[in-house]
Amino acid sequence: MNYTSQQIIELAQRTLQVEAEALNVMAASLGEEFMAAVDSILGCSGKLIVTGMGKSGLVGRKIAATLASTGTPSFYLHPGEAFHGDLGMISKEDVILALSYSGETDEVLKIVPFIHSNGNVLISMTGNKESTLAKNSNIHLDVCVKEEACILRLAPTTSTTAQIAMGDALAVALMKAREFTAMDFARFHPGGSLGRRLLMRVGNVMRKNDLPVVAADCSATEMIHKMSRGGLGLIIIKDGDKIEGIVTDGDVRRAMESRQAEFFNIRAIDIATRSPKVVNVNAKLVEAEKLMTSYKVNSLLAVDDAGALQGVIQIYDIKL
User: Fold this and answer.
1) Which of 19, 143, 156, 174 has the most CB atoms around its CB within 10 Å?
2) 218, 235 in Cβ contact below 8 A?
3) What is the dihedral angle through the alpha carbons of 239, 240, 246, 251, rounded to the nearest 10 degrees?
4) Handedness of CA 228, 229, 234, 236 (dihedral sign)
5) Are 301 and 243 in contact (CB under 8 A)?
6) How far apart (Å, rounded) are the C-alpha atoms in residues 153 and 14?
7) Local structure of residue 320 (DSSP, 8 states)
8) Residue 185: what are its φ and ψ, rounded to 5°?
9) CB-count burial class (<10 Å; 0-12, 13-18, 19+) for 129
10) pTM
């Protein structure tokens, strides 16, 4: 082994420092061209089509995905495939974002004449404002970096970081301009954790079958058995349709410690929380989560508009 752990750590630190410094320089240089790009995308009645080759193409895919998920209709178009027939995917209403750090990527330059003849706005993202692509664009976003973080100064490292960051800056600016909300984000991510919490309701996930319901005079022994079989860490005390209270496994443990020999003489109602925390069955999961956080509890009783018990929801149901 011809290197030490300290050398590797120092090299990694230098990589991050080089890339961070490049982003700081780029941030300080943002101005009219960036605003022109934002305005062009906002005013577009079609889609934003992102294109690029190699590492720039991979970055382009990421940028397109980020934009599409944050309110800007967008997709990635491979320039080589575009030149061989996929240019038909570009409508006159679309804006094109072309990535090429050198600004001289042949596959990208080959489709520029079509973009011009089709009347599309062309936004380029390059590291050379004097490049062919930059000069033939309506708007140029400068992602020039002083050096690559690669130890050979060859592999795209700092430059691709700059491209990704510029794409993120566009996405965030467009989110602000569109007044894009957490609910909008959830609509585009219904399968994600945030989407699930914002869109689904308590009734969709609550436990509603075989609830551990007992009477107020339930004995300590029956109380423990019912809680064990219920698998919720609690039992619910009811008198007809009226909820009288709940007893949690924590209540049982504390009662066993404080009552000791007298524990098996108590009834469920003796150690119950008489006003258990509830949530409406039609409330969204995010509302239930807020209630649990506010009350500092892990479970809520789900009730209908009349206050009748419908089920139990726990923090684990929300976090799935």
Assistant:
1) 143
2) yes
3) 40
4) negative
5) yes
6) 13
7) -
8) -60, -40
9) middle
10) 0.67
Question: Percentages helix, strand, coil for the chain, rounded to the nearest 5?
Answer: 50, 20, 30
Residue 160: what residue type?
T
Strand, coil or helix: what is 128?
Answer: coil
User: Which amino acid does the sequence have at 238?
Assistant: K
Sign, CA torsion 176/182/187/193: positive
DSSP annotation of 43: T
Query: Looking at residue 219, what DSSP letter applies?
Result: B
State how far the Cα of 37 lies from the Cα of 64, in Å rounded to an integer: 15
